[in-house]
Amino acid sequence: MITHTFSIAYNEYSGTDQLSTEDKTLLQEAWTACESAYAPYSKFHVGASVRLANELIFKGNNQENAAYPSGICAERVAVFSASATYPGVPIRSIAVVAKTDVFNLSNPVTPCGACRQVIAEYEMLSGEPIRILLQGNSDKIWIIDGIANLLPLMFHGGELKK
Predict the structure, then answer these.
(1) Sheet strand arrangement including 131-135
(2) SS3 state of residue 68
(3) Confidence (pTM)
(4) Where residue 162 falls among pLDDT bands split at 50, 70, 90?
(5) For residues 132 and 129, what is the distance between their CA atoms, to the nearest angstrom?
(6) Are the C-beta atoms of 120 and 62 separated by less than 8 Å?
(7) Which residues are catalytically annotated?
(8) Phi-psi category of 15—alpha, beta or left, where left has phi over 0 and alpha has psi -120 to 50?
(9) Which of 4, 86, 127, 133 is most buried (CB neighbours < 10 A)?
(10) What distance in Å separates the CA atoms of residue 44 and residue 34, rounded to the nearest whole number?
(11) Residue 63, SS3 per DSSP
(12) Is residue 47 within 8 Å of 63, Cβ to Cβ?
């Protein structure tokens, strides 16, 4: 037996004053999207914003449904909207934020597994790491360079080719 260990790298900031104007803007756009999330069941509001290589920003938020599997996460709304509008334009960064009054979010929220895999797909298409900014109810911000730091054993589409 061989035991392998993964480690991830991320930077933690104690507020937006330490961020670039570009990162601050992306986070603010995600918070704007978060405000209009449709989350009547969980009361867990998530917003996401995606910056493309052409500098355009697309927003998304979680959309719940009484039939829970029919809902969709904020990250996928933003990524799919950007890709549908500007196919082939690489994603440079994505910000994901969340808030709730139901429980304490002491750490930034991270994308679910499905969203991580979607981000991985678009990162593989561009061949460049996507910068991921995460924030929750507190001022704490995590910045991660590349989806491999969140999904180290990701599934690669190339594995489907014969």
Answers:
(1) 11-13, 141-145, 131-135, 91-100, 44-52, 57-61
(2) helix
(3) 0.94
(4) low
(5) 9
(6) no
(7) 75
(8) left
(9) 133
(10) 10
(11) strand
(12) no
Domains of the chain: 11-150 (3.40.140.10)
Q: How many CB atoms lie within 10 A of CB 33?
A: 26
Q: Residue type at 66?
A: A
Enter the tokens of residue 51: 């910056």
Within 8 A by CB and 6+ apart from 79, the residues are 48, 50, 58, 60, 91, 94, 118, 119, 122
- Please name the helix (run of DSSP H) or strand (run of DSSP E) that holds residue 123, with its range, or none: helix 113-126
Pick left, alpha or beta for residue 146 (phi over 0 → left; psi -120 to 50 → alpha; otherwise beta).
left
- Among residues 133, 124, 41, 44, which one has the least CA distance to residue 90? 124
Per-residue burial over 41-75, b = 16 or more CB atoms within 10 Å of its CB, e = otherwise: eeebbbbbbbbbeeeebbbbbbbbeeeeeeebbbb
Q: Which uninterrupted H or E stretch holds 50?
A: strand 44-52
User: What DSSP state is assigned to residue 156?
Assistant: -
